[in-house]
Amino acid sequence: MSSFTLIEHPLIQHKLSVLRNKNTSSATFRKTVEEMTHLVCYEATRKVSLGEVHIETPLEKTVGKMIDEDLILVSIMRAGNSMLEALLNMMPFARAGHIGIYRDKFVQNTVEYYFRVPQNIKSKRILLADPIVATGDTVVACLDRLKQYQVGTIQLLTLLISPQGLEKVQHFHPEVEIYTASVERGLNEKGFLLPGIGDAGDRLYHTLE
Fold it and tell me: Domain containing 188: what range?
């Protein structure tokens, strides 16, 4: 079974309640997703490797530590883009990619419409970002594609995940490390998380009717 980390820090839970509130504006929603992503990133990057660097403070020379991994950040579009920008703010030295995959209810399968990742990602650590994991189909399809490149450790960063989605990811990709702020109660008949936050993309980009 994959490594699973439920982040229950008070700040995370406070900000999650802001996201849940249907009256939260798109601007506040985007800002809160950014802030929560920073906190999830903090937990997910505990294991990245550090290298020594020689630096000079205003007072003397010393030896410091800096991340020396070639980290690859990947967004599952479109909602994942909000998390990707937050991750790049935290780690501007990282490289970034985008995957566009959605589940088509008519063909009952996932459809890929965009895939662009940096070159030479074999054996590299991947931080895969998507605010919501509902059925898990899209995430599993993205993981399948990334593994075609023989990447290294994959860490899935999400804000909310359903029990069904969690089980599916753990079943098909048991080695993936999962970080989330909440395991939701379940899914409704339309595939939305309950209690959830609604459609993350619509709320992020103000495309609700």
Answer: 4-205
Q: Tell me, what's the pLDDT at 137?
A: 92
Over 90: is that where the pLDDT of 11 sits?
A: yes
Query: Number of structural domains, the chain?
Result: 1
CA distance 151 to 123: 4
Q: Which residues neighbour 167 within 8 Å (Cβ) at sequence distance 6 or greater?
A: 136
Name, in order, each residue with C-beta under 8 angstroms of 53's C-beta and a sequence gap of 6 or more: 63, 64, 65, 66
Burial of 122 (0-12, 13-18, 19+ CB in 10 A): exposed
What does the pLDDT look like over 102-129, one tens digit per residue?
A: 876 665 678 899 999 999 999 999 999 9
- CATH at 125: 3.40.50.2020
197 within 8 A of 185, measured Cβ to Cβ: no
What's the rounded mean pLDDT across residues 51-56? 97
Q: What is the pLDDT of residue 102?
A: 80
The average confidence (pLDDT) of the chain is 94
Distance CA 155, CA 43 (A): 11
Question: Which is nearest to 160 in space by CA: 140, 127, 136?
Answer: 136
Determine which helix (DSSP H) or strand (DSSP E) holds 37, and give its type and residue range: helix 26-44
Number of other residues whose CB lies within 10 A of the CB of residue 8: 9
The per-type count for the chain, helices as H runs and strands as E runs, is 6, 14
Tokens encoding 81: 């883009």
